[in-house]
Structure formats: structure tokens, C-alpha cells
Amino acid sequence: MDQDKPPFAKEIEAKAGEIKENLKHVETEEKNKLPTKADIEQEKKETDKEGS
């Protein structure tokens, strides 16, 4: 199966392996949290008051 790959494919795979080994684990933190049901109800009340 390796014979079907172009000659530079092995070099790319080797380099990708090196890069992957050097990556460190990070924890993601969501910054744009969705509004809660209470937030939506509060905003709905505020907009209803402004529209009246």
C-alpha cells in the first residue's frame, strides 16, 4: 500500500507525526455562553415594556 503513495508522502507523514507528538493538551473554555431561559424571559419582558 505504501508503494501507491508518492515519494514525498512518507516525509509528510513523518513530519506530521513529529508535530503531533509536540502538541500539548489544552482545556477549552466557552466564552459565548447561550442565554438561560430566565435570561430570555427577562429580555422579553423588557422589550415588551419598551414596545408598549
Automatic annotation (TrEMBL):
<dbReference type="GO" id="GO:0005856">
    <property type="term" value="C:cytoskeleton"/>
</dbReference>
<dbReference type="InterPro" id="IPR038386">
    <property type="entry name" value="Beta-thymosin_sf"/>
</dbReference>
<keyword id="KW-0206">Cytoskeleton</keyword>
<dbReference type="GO" id="GO:0003785">
    <property type="term" value="F:actin monomer binding"/>
</dbReference>
<keyword id="KW-0963">Cytoplasm</keyword>
<dbReference type="GO" id="GO:0007015">
    <property type="term" value="P:actin filament organization"/>
</dbReference>
<feature type="region of interest" description="Disordered">
    <location>
        <begin position="1"/>
        <end position="52"/>
    </location>
</feature>
<dbReference type="InterPro" id="IPR001152">
    <property type="entry name" value="Beta-thymosin"/>
</dbReference>
<comment type="similarity">
    <text>Belongs to the thymosin beta family.</text>
</comment>
<dbReference type="Pfam" id="PF01290">
    <property type="entry name" value="Thymosin"/>
</dbReference>
<protein>
    <recommendedName>
        <fullName>Thymosin beta</fullName>
    </recommendedName>
</protein>
